[in-house]
Amino acid sequence: MVSDAPFLVGVTGASGVEYARRLIEILGDRAEVILTKDAQAVIEIETGLSTKEFAASARAVYREDDLAAGPASGSRLFRAFAIIPCSGTTLAKIATGIADNLVTRAAAVALKENRKLILVPREAPLSAIALENMLKLARLGVVILPASPGFYGQPKRIGDLVDFVVARVLDHLGVEHAIGSRWTGPE
Ligand SMILES: Cc1cc2nc3c(=O)[nH]c(=O)nc-3n(C[C@H](O)[C@H](O)[C@H](O)COP(=O)(O)O)c2cc1C
Questions:
Q1: Does a structural domain hold residue 2?
Q2: Cβ of 15 less than 6 Å from ligand 1
């Protein structure tokens, strides 16, 4: 894999877009971002930021209907694809092979090209349908990494909880970082 190939970050219309904002901030111009239409609505509701402000440091920002963009083709390299947060709708589409927007198409590319795909679902409780979709994808090697922060690092701020999840995503992307707390054993 070419080392300057981007990391793809897909943002969908689930709650928790702050996880994506923080990931994009850390990846900086190593990130190419794809926003669904519903993600744009949730970004507005949860952050009040414009999409430009939300992904200011990214190398490129694509809309979901831009199916001619680079990430739609397997010939265009990307290092890994994290969908954060990942809605139940996008999860279901990926699990059933529907590639009707740039997020789901790039996920289909990741699957067919055997590239790392990380999904960060945010839903509670989970229906049997969502659980089956996750199991199906996990068996294909997809990393299912729920937005479920741990509390053993004694978080003080919302940002600490966000960083806990983003740190796990960065670990799976293979990106060195110094955020979040790592368990070092009991005192
Ligand atoms: C404010 C808001 C919060 C939402 N939160 C979630 C959520 O946490 N998880 C989820 O799966 N869907 C959530 N949804 C519903 C999705 O936006 C909806 O299922 C949509 O079809 C997702 O489309 P997309 O995956 O193309 O972005 C939320 C919708 C809104 C408006």
A1: no
A2: yes
> How much is the pTM?
0.97
Ligand 1 and 14: CB distance under 6 A: yes
- Token pair for 124: 């509670």
Question: Is residue 164 included in any domain, yes or no?
Answer: yes
Q: Number of folded domains in the chain?
A: 1
| 10 within ligand 1 shell (Cβ under 6 A) | no
Residues of the domain holding 64: 7-173
What is the b/e burial string over 141-160, where b = at least 16 CB atoms within 10 angstroms of the residue's CB? Answer: ebbbbbbebeeebebeeeeb
Distance 44 CA to ligand 1 centre (A): 13
pLDDT tens profile 10-30: 999 999 999 999 999 999 999
Ligand 1 within 6 A of CB of 44: no
Q: 97 alpha carbon to ligand 1 midpoint, in Å? A: 19
CATH number at residue 143: 3.40.50.1950
Asked if residue 6 lies in contact with residue 78, where contact means CB atoms within 8 angstroms, the answer is: yes
